[in-house]
Amino acid sequence: MSSAGFARLFNPRAIAVVGASGNPDRIGGQPVKVLQGTGYRGGIHPVNPKYPKVFGLPCFPDLASVPKPCDLAIIAVNAVLVPQMIRDCGAAGIPYAIIFSAGFREIGAPGVALEKEIKVAAHDAGVRFIGPNCIGTMNLIDRVYCGFGPGFADAGLKAGPVAFVSQSGGFAFSVVALAEAEGVGFNYIVSAGNETSITSLDLIADFIERDDTEIVVSYMEGISDGRRLRAIGRRALELGKPILVWKVGNTESGRAAAESHTASMTAGYALYRAAFAEGGFIEIADVHDLVDGVRAFSGRRLPRGPNLGVLTTSGGSGVLMVDAADRHGLKFPRLAPETVRAMKEIAPPNASLANPVDLTAQVTGNAEWVNRITRHVLADPNIDQLIVRYGSVQGAKGEEWASGLAALVTEAEKPVLVAWSRVPDRSERSVEVLERHRIPWLITPTRTADAAGMLYQFSRKRAALEQRCKRSGARVVASRNVPLPARARRLSEHQSKAVLAAYGIPVATDALIAVAGVARLKRAPMPFPVAVKIDSPDIPHKTEAGAVRLNVRNLAQLKRAARDVVAAAKQHAPKAALRGVLLSPMASGVEVIAGATNDRFFGPVVMFGLGGIFTELLRDVSYRFAPFDVETAHEMIRETRAWRLLAGYRGKPPLAVDALAEALARLSLLIADHAGRIAEIDINPLFVNETRVVAADALVVLPR
Fold first, then answer.
1. Is residue 471 very low, low, confident or very high in pLDDT (cuts 50, 70, 90)?
2. The CATH number of 590-701 is which of 3.40.50.410, 3.30.420.40, 3.30.470.20, 1.10.10.10?
3. 441 touches 406 (CB < 8 A)
4. Which class in CATH covers the domain with range 301-466?
């Protein structure tokens, strides 16, 4: 995925400001004044037939009059005038625009129609634009401030190798100000607005390809192309450039209505999390996460594994870091015997030489001791990354310690993070040394451990991608036709199981008997005990309808149960089409749920988790995008708490996990091969015992 090529958008040779005003308090006046005051070196061309000059600059009556070349138009006019302004941009050879104007889809139907008109105008004119309804963009490398509002009033904002793409304009620039206060800067900042032309994903895809961008930050409310989001996440891993994503709007109230358990549990945020988990995304939840992530990744080193070493002068801070690091899956291995022996020759007598290494306050002021011990811990073969907290160092001693640490880090290939002990003065020379040598420093022990977790998470995902690429990708089942009735909305259980069986997913050996034929039975078509269920495409949830009887043990009970489920079905849904009474052998084992949906944004996805009453109570589920292989299926099984039951809990024998993984891989191929014909698949319960896996119930839903 190459860069979309937005060079002229962010570093234009000249900018036309349409709707320019001489009043610096008006939206049309602010960008002219801002561009003059922030160091932009290109041409600034106000456009407004009302004025001969704006802030001392010649003001042109229309875009056709603007001198060439001009790469960007800032549009700040009434919404109804915007489509024509876009056409005028095309006629004037201006390829990009930033539309401040509001009054589009955010106001309802009239705005929706007007926004469509802009889109058509832009397509016809060959113009791409940011917005509408945005507050602008910043390129802090070249000091190109194209926006309005208080966020653009600070001409001295710090630059840094970070690009920030936000779906909230005002909030984005408050984040920029807060990050600036903690010493973190951005090279690019974009308020994406309504994303009618250029989307957040377009921008992220562009920024991760840029040499001047090492980290991308995204404040994300929602996107319309989940497949592209996943592709961008993969590209970020390939390039080693993390995307710190701040995803909002994730509450239950935002969930879409769905007919199956699977669909109800994969709507909304669940699929974003699945995409973030497989790609180069690190989820953040507040400004301090952004600051710490930027600092951690600016060190340009990733750990090779989960083993974290901690060297501290405070036992309490060591405990804090252990607790925080454990939440990220980080481990604290024993140090090698040779490391401990080497430290004993240097460390003060009361020091603890386990991991964390607690040197105690006895090393106060002795930077040489601390760095000599740091060298040994950093070289330990059991350690993948290191946190150093030297709480009492300051002044000249602080600079001495930081310089010595920098020399050690330069020699090593492992990440080293510094947990600062107090609010740092930005003028402190020790901090300047750390930043000059790209040694990440964090403000508290917990935040430092969280940052180490971010590094490990990204490194682990890069390794997982490499392993996926090495695997052959061979299918466990070839693409096959499946029996899908024409003009159906849902399939009955018997029909649904036939679809699963076509892909080799084990299903119960059922018998479908006509409603009128049950009374004539002389013997059961299978051994007792059996389950008796109604088979109807119009009753997807048979238990709720009272149309299921379990553990039926003789022929008389079977006939009575059949009458009962038919009566319950007719009472529950009088107009339902009853295909017959379904008899199924009673299954045993651990109940799990598996399912698949064809999401309108992300495409086909598979869900797995605990079944029975735990399905919606615990929501112990994992997700993968289809198709995937058996090894990936094993990974998703191990992510759930169900794994402990399946692997053999408290001395019980392990269950047929390999068969379960193969069934999940087959399900992923089924939904991927037939994504255009199948909307949802629900297998609940799916029983797993010591020898086999069997689908005891299933529901297939077709597209509307």
1. confident
2. 3.30.470.20
3. no
4. alpha beta
